[in-house]
Amino acid sequence: MPPKWPREPDRADPAYRQLEDRINFAVHVAAFAAFNSGLWFFHGFMPGTLLWLPKLTLPWLGILACHAVWLFAIANYTAPKPDSDQSSS
Q1: Domain limits of the chain?
Q2: Phi-psi map region of 10: left, alpha, beta (phi>0 left; psi -120 to 50 alpha)
Q3: What pLDDT band is residue 88 in, cutting at 50, 70 and 90?
Q4: φ, ψ for residue 41 (rounded to 5)?
C-alpha cells in the first residue's frame, strides 16, 4: 500500500522531505538488489563471463552506503527558521 500524505505535498515541509528521501533510498536499494542479484545469479552459471561485475557492484555498494549515511546521519529535516534580522529600509 502506498504511503498516504494527509496534506498537500510541499518540498519545503520537513516531514514530507524526509519521507520523499527515504522512498528515494528504498528505490535505490531495490534497484541495487534487483540488478546485482540477477547479474550475480548468471555469473554463477558462467563464471568466466561478466568479469566487470565486481567493478560494478563494489562502487555501487559504496554509493549506496554514502546515500544511507547522508540520509540517516547527516540530513537535517528541521524546519528553517524565518529570518527576523531583516530590517525594512
Answers
A1: 14-74
A2: beta
A3: low
A4: -60, -50
